[in-house]
């Protein structure tokens, strides 16, 4: 796992900080994505998961994003078979807070 990305060194991330380029798609839908992405700032790779929790009653959908640093595409392919929430180190991000574990 690569932990050199500039994103891993920031205390609070904004949506602008999380600018990435899609390299490979594992799964994409309207409420769930699993991708290999590259950080636009420093070029590091991440296994990325997007999950939108749909609030059918109030319309206040909650969006969660997880970024797992990886060394290369082969590592991302292997980790893609895992539960992403179990992987560390990671960036767990939503509109309100960034939590790194």
Secondary structure: elements and pairs:
Elements: E1 20-28, E2 32-39, E3 45-53, E4 62-70, H1 73-79, E5 91-93, E6 98-100
Number of helical stretches of at least 4 residues: 1
Number of domains: 1
Distance between the termini: 14 Å
The main sheet orders its strands as: 1-2-3-4-5-6
Structural class based on helices, strands and sheet pairing: mainly beta
Shape: globular
The total beta strand count reads 6
Low-confidence region ranges: none
Helix content: under 10%
Compressed to H and E, one letter per element, the order equals EEEEHEE
**Mean pLDDT across all residues, rounded?**
83
Largest sheet: 6 strands, antiparallel
Radius of gyration: 13 Å
Strand content: 35-45%
Short characterization:
The chain is mainly beta and 101 residues long.
What does this structure look like?
With about 100 residues, the protein is mainly beta. It has one domain. About 5% of the residues lie in helices and about 40% in strands. It is built from one helix and six strands. The chain has one helix spanning about 75-80; strands at about 20-30, 30-40, 45-55, 60-70, 90-95, 100. Strands 1-2-3-4-5-6 form a six-stranded antiparallel β-sheet. The mean pLDDT is about 85.
Task: Fill in the keyword field for this structure.
101 residues; mainly beta; 6-stranded antiparallel beta sheet; 7% helix
């Amino acid at each position: 796992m690569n932990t050199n990305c500039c994103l891993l060194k920031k205390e609070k991330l904004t949506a602008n900080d999380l600018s990435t380029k899609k390299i490979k798609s594992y799964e994409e839908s309207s409420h769930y994505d699993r991708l290999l992405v590259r950080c636009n700032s420093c070029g590091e790779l991440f296994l990325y998961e997007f999950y939108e929790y749909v609030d059918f009653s109030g319309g206040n959908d909650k969006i969660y994003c997880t970024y797992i640093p990886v060394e290369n595409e082969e590592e991302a392919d292997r980790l893609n078979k895992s539960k992403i929430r179990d992987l560390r180190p990671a960036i767990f991000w939503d509109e309100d807070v960034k939590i790194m574990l």
